[in-house]
Design brief:
There is one protein chain. The chain is mainly α. It folds into 2 domains: 113 residues; 192 residues, no CATH class. It is built from 11 helices and no strands. The N and C termini lie far apart (59 Å).
Length: 309
């Protein structure tokens, strides 16, 4: 039964991937892409990589899917949305088939890399946390995570650079309207409290269980977006200083923790065991605030002409 489930899941993933790149219609391709991300998340669960599965479902399928839907809606408003030609579909399908063949060849021919299990297990007592993924991302390989948080902020700054000077004082995105008593208004009242609890739990549990700042921050960003779409909260102005602090606090706390490690342990971003856990929790909380704000603002986009001040 386990083998049959895995084979069926692989067939679904390949089928949905083919439908994404070879099907007709931009909107249909986006929907298939979101389904593909959710199926890949299930695949990671089957492989026992729960943290990767949470990130894939929240970011790979959820956030990226919302960004693609927002981009599709913008293209439709501008009247520039066009479906790809049959030649482009054929090239995409051929490229996907070539990639699948290369991965299959690598799986059966190339030797598997050595697992770093013993080395990681030996280093875990000084990590300060019990979750090995959190230990690697925020202690042993913290440089990567710090740069990822900076890249997210740089992406948002690049998006905001598209804002026209006269719109700089406006609110982010387009005006949102929801029908009183409708589905969106109902979801706006029910989902945010549940999502808030889940997001906070993912951050708090990430030190010793599955979860973390990126997963929790994505859930909290979704909570804010649902509340804004339902009209419960107003998107902030692009020049609001409080939100600028929220965007910067994650990388800033990360750098300060790295400097503390340099003073106490003699190496930047190396956390001594006595302060490792409180430092990691502090970094996680600060990163969650920055990630949630950054992702939500990326989806909302810059201020649009016609938004009421």
């Amino acid at each position: 039964m386990s083998l049959a489930l895995d084979l069926a899941l692989c067939a679904l993933i390949l089928g949905v991937a083919l439908a994404t790149v070879a099907g007709s219609g931009l909107f249909r391709a986006i929907v298939f892409f979101i389904v593909y991300g959710l199926l890949v998340a299930v695949g990671w669960v089957r492989l026992g990589a729960i943290d990767v599965a949470l990130a894939e479902a929240a970011i790979g399928a959820g956030l990226t899917g919302v960004l693609l839907l927002a981009a599709h809606g913008r293209l439709r408003r501008l009247g520039t949305a066009r479906d790809a030609s049959h030649g482009a579909h054929l090239l995409s399908a051929l490229a996907g088939a070539a990639l699948a063949a290369a991965l299959a060849w690598a799986w059966f021919v190339l030797p598997l890399p050595e697992r770093p299990g013993p080395e990681l297990a030996a280093a875990m007592p000084r990590a300060g946390v019990e979750n090995p993924v959190t230990a690697v991302l925020l202690n042993f390989r913290a440089w990567d995570t710090l740069l990822e948080s900076i890249v997210l902020l740089a992406a948002l700054i690049g998006l905001w650079m598209l804002t026209r000077e006269r719109d700089w004082s406006g609110r982010l995105g387009l005006p949102q309207h929801s029908r009183a008593g409708g589905v969106l208004a109902s979801f706006g009242r029910v989902l945010p409290p549940v999502g808030l609890l889940i997001g906070v739990w993912l951050v708090w549990a990430g030190a010793d269980r599955h979860g973390g700042a990126f997963q929790g921050g994505t859930v909290l960003a979704a909570v804010g977006l649902v509340a804004a779409m339902a009209g419960l909260v107003r998107p902030p102005r692009i020049g609001a200083r409080l939100w600028h602090v929220a965007l910067m606090i994650g990388p800033a706390v990360f750098v300060l923790a790295g400097l503390a490690g340099a003073i106490l342990a003699g190496e930047f971003l190396t956390l001594p065991p006595p302060i490792a856990k409180p430092a990691i929790l502090t970094i996680e909380i600060a990163l969650t605030a920055s990630i949630a704000a950054t992702l939500a603002f990326l989806v909302l986009g810059p201020p649009e002409e016609g938004r009421a001040p």
